[in-house]
Design brief:
Distance between the termini: 66 Å
Strand content: 5-15%
Largest sheet: 3 strands, antiparallel
Bound molecules: acetyl coenzyme *A
Structural class: mainly alpha
CATH superfamily of the largest domain: Citrate Synthase, domain 1
Oligomer: single chain
CATH topology of the largest domain: Citrate Synthase, domain 1
Radius of gyration: 23 Å
CATH architecture of the largest domain: Orthogonal Bundle
Number of domains: 2
Order of helices and strands: EEEHEEEHHHHHHHHHHHHHHHHH
């Protein structure tokens, strides 16, 4: 017998259905509330609003649990590969060997981007932030593949669009970096795996081909897995919202890139390293910055701390912290900001302000240190996040299309001026 919630408004009682998820999460379904009562619900920042039901990712922020399609993130990070996880997220099940081989081969065959798009890169200034370039070029794919504009195509056609975006995104991203340092772009090579190919396109020079280091490839693969999906966060909700108007996949992903770019979301990994560098340059006084973060008159926040959903340790941060140690040890790098990061974490985790507010390090607290060790420059960090999040965006977009979800269109409570009459300019005091 399904439960109902009872809501009393102006003395009248309304029964609203309760929706229960796999893990017993509960929601009051208010879809019909306005029709029944004239009321809407108000929830700035959607802190307590479910925008959809979804079968993709389970996240329990109170207990620090993250699962893709039911599989714990710890197991996937330890035993899987990024392409396997991408397949899982997008198609719902772990691939068989032949399904994975086909998926991988298809991606390898679509990594080139149209030669005319190369000219876009020449037009961007070298100081362009790569996220702006990546989002623009991703959106431009829709102009080269106009058939992608029709969302009502058979699934095999849509799958080709999915393959193309997965295959071309590393090329688009690496070329943004090549351009930013004034170097010629590197063409993809089919002999390489997804991550190797990206590293080759980033770091090969006409004078010397980059040799992918298995330690680096492994760490990057893991980082991409950890970023692959995170249910209805800002950028993913953006992808679903934009896609709900039946905008094409390339444009929806480009919109997701822009949402991710902000320093409160995917831009946090860049902000973390900048903050750690600042603390280091300022003599490494961690306590001083913890005090600044607590001071309500100071806009400074501890970047990489706190999360909208996790009120416990971010499980991804635990995995990354270990991967970070492994990479630095294996590459023989001593990065002084790692010491600052560890000290900052230690101090903050014992400080009443952070404990009370349940502010723990998030996934971005350590990822920047790994990226830097690999040689990825700071303004490419958010691009790395986008590369990891891509399968999640695709999976969420696909689910939204398959579920035939209606166009997203929140309501509001208007608090502006009441009706008033137009005043001619000469009479306006
Ligand atoms: N440093 C200092 N204080 C903080 C921090 C922080 N990093 N994060 C939250 N707080 C404080 C707030 O000032 C607030 O205090 P108050 O209750 O006394 O007013 C309280 O903790 C709650 O914070 P909110 O901003 O209301 O929490 P919200 O859920 O809206 O924000 C967010 C979450 C944006 C992630 C926030 O914690 C933050 O700005 N963190 C730093 C940026 C960051 O690391 N972003 C990456 C997020 S992970 C990701 O996108 C992959």
């Amino acid at each position: 017998m399904p439960e109902n919630a009872k809501l009393v408004l102006e003395g009248k009682e309304y029964e609203l259905p309760v929706v229960t998820g796999t893990e017993n999460e509960k929601a009051v379904d208010i879809t019909r509330l306005r029709d029944l009562s004239g009321y809407i619900t108000l929830d700035s920042g959607y802190k307590n609003t479910g925008a959809t039901v979804s079968k993709i990712t389970y996240l329990d922020g109170e207990n620090g649990i993250l699962r893709y399609r039911g599989y714990p993130i710890e197991q996937l990070a330890e035993r899987s590969t990024f392409l396997e996880v991408a397949y899982l997220l997008i198609y719902g099940e772990l691939p068989t060997r032949s399904q994975l081989d086909e998926f991988d081969n298809n991606i390898r065959r679509h990594t080139l981007i149209h030669e005319d798009m190369k000219r876009f890169y020449q037009a961007y200034p070298t100081y362009a932030h790569p996220m702006g370039v990546v989002a623009s070029v991703t959106c431009s794919l829709s102009t080269f593949y106009p058939e992608s504009l029709n969302p009502n195509r058979p699934w095999e056609k849509i799958n080709l669009t999915i393959t193309r975006i997965l295959a071309k995104f590393p090329t688009i991203a690496a070329w943004a970096y090549n351009n930013s340092i004034g170097h010629p772009v590197n063409y993809p090579k089919n002999k390489y795996s997804y991550v190797e190919n990206f590293l080759h396109m980033m770091f090969s020079k006409p004078t010397e081909e980059y040799e992918p280091d298995p330690v680096v490839v492994n760490a990057l693969d893991k980082l991409l897995i950890l970023h692959a999906d995170h249910e209805q966060n800002c950028s993913t909700s953006t992808v679903r919202l934009v896609g709900s108007s039946q905008a094409n996949l390339y444009g929806s992903i480009a919109a997701g890139c822009i949402a991710l770019w902000g320093p409160l979301h995917g831009g946090a990994n860049q902000a973390v390293i900048e903050m750690l560098d600042q603390i280091h340059a300022d003599g490494g006084n961690v306590q001083k910055y913890v005090e600044k973060a607590k001071d309500k008159n100071d806009p400074f926040r501890l970047m990489g701390f706190g999360h909208r959903v996790y009120k416990n340790f971010d499980p991804r941060a635990k995995i990354i912290k270990k991967a970070c140690d492994d990479v630095l040890n294996k590459l023989g790098i001593h990065d002084p900001v790692l010491d600052i990061a560890k000290k900052l974490e230690e101090v903050a985790l014992q400080d009443e302000y952070f404990v009370e507010r349940k502010l723990y390090p998030n996934v971005d607290f350590y990822s920047g240190i790994i990226y830097r060790a690999i040689g990825i420059p700071v303004d490419m960090f958010t691009v790395m996040f986008a590369l990891g999040r891509l399968p999640g965006w695709i999976a969420q977009w696909k689910e939204m299309v398959e579920n035939k979800e209606p166009i997203g269109r929140p309501r509001q409570i208007y608090t502006g001026a009441a009706k008033r009459d137009y005043v001619n300019i000469a009479e306006r005091g």
